[in-house]
């Protein structure tokens, strides 16, 4: 039959130990299968495996401790990233031929202001670090100016590298 084990975590010699009572007394040559589900946190820096040491201990005076068995379990980080974006205004109609006022430093003289906002979300279940997002923005179309890249801003502790040609006329 199946029954739930009573397990208690504790520390022994700076090592985390989980002690499970399997039953007492047991008959000689008894075989027991145990399935354990463990929840382990703080695995960000453990690499690609985590090792568990398993040992049976008994109050039997003839053979109180079994050999230590090491079980290696692969660690795989999983996180789903989602990129959301929008433009303000949502649509913009640009004239076929646009003439910017040469030498003007006023934004209105260079065309319609369009703001693009992107949000990168971690949908989990794990945490992420070291994420790189490459965003290509077309600034010219057919040799003619399409978008004038004015500024780049971030929120939430991100670092961004400014693209070449950002606000070349210092508008």
UniProtKB/TrEMBL annotation:
Protein name per UniProt: ITA2B protein
Subcellular location: Membrane
Gene coding for it: Itga2b_1
Entry GO MF terms: integrin binding
Keywords, alphabetical: Glycoprotein, Integrin, Membrane
Main localization (coarse): membrane
Residues covered by the Integrin alpha third immunoglobulin-like domain: 82-171
SUPFAM superfamilies for the chain: Integrin domains
Gene3D superfamilies: ntegrin, alpha v. Chain A, domain 3 (2.60.40.1510), ntegrin, alpha v. Chain A, domain 4 (2.60.40.1530)
Topological relation to the membrane, as annotated: Single-pass type I membrane protein
Plastid keyword on record: no
Domain called Integrin alpha second immunoglobulin-like: residue spans: 3-75
GO CC annotation: external side of plasma membrane; integrin complex
A Pfam family per the record: Integrin_A_Ig_2
One BP term from GO: angiogenesis
């Amino acid at each position: 039959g199946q029954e739930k084990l009573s397990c208690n975590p504790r520390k022994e010699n700076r090592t985390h130990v989980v002690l499970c009572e399997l039953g007492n007394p047991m008959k000689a040559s008894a075989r027991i299968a145990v399935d354990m589900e463990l929840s382990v946190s703080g695995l960000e820096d453990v690499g690609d495996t985590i090792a568990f040491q398993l040992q049976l201990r008994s109050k039997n005076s003839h053979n109180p401790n079994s050999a230590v068995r090491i079980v290696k379990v692969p660690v795989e980080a999983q996180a789903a990233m989602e990129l959301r974006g929008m433009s303000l205004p949502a649509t913009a109609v640009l004239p076929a031929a646009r003439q910017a006022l040469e030498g003007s430093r006023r934004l209105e003289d260079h065309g319609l202001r369009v703001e693009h906002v992107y949000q990168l979300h971690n949908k989990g279940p794990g945490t992420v670090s070291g994420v790189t997002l490459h965003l290509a923005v077309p600034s010219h179309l057919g040799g003619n100016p399409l978008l004038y890249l004015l500024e780049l801003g971030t929120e939430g502790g991100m670092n961004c590298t400014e693209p070449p040609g950002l606000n070349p006329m210092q508008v």
